[in-house]
Every structure is written in structure tokens, then in C-alpha cells.
Amino acid sequence: MAPSRSSTRSGTAKTPVAPLTSARVDSWIWAVRLLKSRSTATDACKAGHVKINDERAKAAQQVREGDEIRVRTSDGDRIVVVRRLVAKRVGAPVAALCYDDLTPPPPPKEERVVIAVRDRGAGRPTKRDRRDLEKLRGPREPWPGEDD
Fold this sequence. Notes:
The protein has helices at 5-8, 25-31, 38-46, 92-97, 127-137, and strands spanning 23-24, 50-52, 55-56, 62-63, 68-73, 76-82, 99-101. The protein is α+β, with helices and mostly antiparallel strands. The strands form two sheets. The chain has a five-stranded antiparallel sheet with strand order 3-2-5-6-7. The protein has a two-stranded antiparallel ribbon with strand order 1-4. α2 (25-31) packs across α3 (38-46).
């Protein structure tokens, strides 16, 4: 008589799991939802957008509790201190408990830098557009050796 499937399973007994002492930085950044995907986190590390304790981090570098991590995102730099290590992606409320956010608040709307953006396909700027841009940017600094 063949044994039933349930009796041949291995690992059904609960074994205690040791707490994590370190985790890969790209995995941790993704797990606590600082970046949307693990591949994005890996690419950010490769591009030099991730620093651990003010040193450029590789994707496989280990992160430990107490480390300061700086991540450059599209919204600006995020500065966090690791409080808890996680290996798998967790929900947003749990992720918020895994780090202390030291990111400074964004500047008020009045102090933000205004960037002139033209619509795609709008063609070459007219003389009037150029004058409006110069008003926005302020007076132009002459190049060295250039006469006005």
C-alpha cells in the first residue's frame, strides 16, 4: 500500500526561525516600499542613487539595524534609518515601523524653483516667448571675454 501524500511531506513541524541580522539593501528598500519594484531598487543601487552611511551602496550590500540609507527617488532624496529588517515585502503600516524617516519636508510652494516647460511639438520659441523666459530667469551673466 502506497503511503498517503500527507504522511510523506517533510518540514511540517514548525522550526524556530532566527531573527535577521542583515539583509540585502535592494531587497530591504523594496520590502519597506521606498521603491516600487525590486528591479528598480537594484537599478538605483547600480546607478549610485543609494547610499548607506554616506557611502555608495551596491545592490547586494548588507544593511543592518541603525544604518542610515539615502535613496534618490523621483520625488527627491529619502533619508531613513533602519529600525527593523524584513526579508519579504510587507504592508504599508508594517513598513512604516521598519524605519525612521529623517527626510526634510519639501520647501513651500512659493520657494520652489520654477522650470519653464514648453509643450511638446509647440515649435521654436518666438521672440515674445524668449523675452518672457528672460524675465522669469533674470538678467543673463555675460561670458568671460564677452562684450555687451
